[in-house]
């Protein structure tokens, strides 16, 4: 833990420190990365809770400094690479326990109508009337030329502050998504894997994931997991994404290769669970084995009640994660919807084949 965090710990309340650690790290990032990193923290609802319970337990020593009792083991020994825990501790995904899973016709999960949005800073219009409906259990893919508005659409859905909605409606699980704060959207079950995942120096993956997971459990009224219980919960997830346990000791995305960052995004998804996972170019920068691992993990996470919206340029991802619908986005709206045959045509003929009615 570096000096600024220790200093901060001395002026923080006991419960306040917990979420100041990632926040401090974000504030140390270059300005260009800050809003993305804040969005990442908001993904987990970790910056707005008025009094989050501490993951790190600590107490005042006689010398007036804080004594941390993060765990019985020093940080570098907390997740040895060979660590295997066969625990039967409470390890259900919050969304598993929240889902109805009770049969019946699939419910409408997301309904976007005539959505328009501009860039907050310049007022430039990017989304020009997006319409999209996603039912529980469906996999949708959005394809489209560079700059057509795919990532903007994803970021608008999760409430990214760079964009302002100027019209239309978005209903998620029956609620007006546009009225919800970014972290509430995340806690409600919306997850966006970033095209360029941000690094958060000074915050370990394990602390970050446990904090995020417990934030979601709190929201759902479930008891939080302590570090040992969290081991039990996360170990199968690591195997699912084929990530070594020592990744948990490393700072969030710091020094990760492009492919490792993408795997880490899917690990976050596996840990948090999500009713709607939006995967923005999750295939970019992945070698073929990594793509297979990531796709396998995404498929394993599918249940009859959750859905995936993936943004991609390439058909090869769609061979691993088979979509029910493919949409073409052009100039900030969805102009065509079909099945895998759209991707086949695109591969052969390019976007000119999509411009005919
Ligand atoms: N924060 C921003 N500031 C300025 N311009 C932006 C911002 N966000 C998006 N844009 C612009 O909006 C347009 C759509 O961008 P977006 O990233 O949504 O496209 P995309 O379809 O995801 O493209 P790609 O396939 O290349 O990832 C682009 O012209 C982009 O430069």
Indicate the radius of gyration in whole angstroms.
21 Å
Q: Can you list the ligands bound to this structure?
A: adenosine-5'-triphosphate
Q: How far is the N terminus from the C terminus?
A: 59 Å
Strand order of the largest sheet: 8-11-12-5-13-14
Low-confidence stretches: 1-29, 45-100
Please give the CATH class.
Answer: Alpha Beta
Overall residue-averaged pLDDT value: 76
CATH topology: Rossmann fold
Question: How many helix segments?
Answer: 12
Count of individual beta strands: 14
Order of helices and strands: HHHEEHEEEHEEHEEHHEHEHEHEEH
Count of the separate structural domains: 1
Specify the CATH architecture. 3-Layer(aba) Sandwich
Approximate helicity band: 25-40%
The major sheet is characterized as:
6 strands, mixed
What structural class do you assign from the helix and strand content? alpha/beta
Residues in β-strands, percent: 15-25%
Judging from the principal axes of the Cα atoms, what is the shape? globular
CATH superfamily: P-loop containing nucleotide triphosphate hydrolases
List the quaternary state of the chains.
single chain
Task: Kindly describe this structure.
By secondary structure, the chain is α/β, with parallel strands linked by helices. The protein has one domain: Rossmann fold, CATH 3.40.50.300. It contains twelve helices and 14 strands. The strands form four sheets. A six-stranded mixed sheet has the order 8-11-12-5-13-14, sandwiched between helices. A four-stranded antiparallel sheet has the order 4-3-6-7. It is globular, with a radius of gyration of 21 Å. Residues 1-29 and 45-100 have low confidence and may be disordered. The site of adenosine-5'-triphosphate has 11 residues, from helix 5.
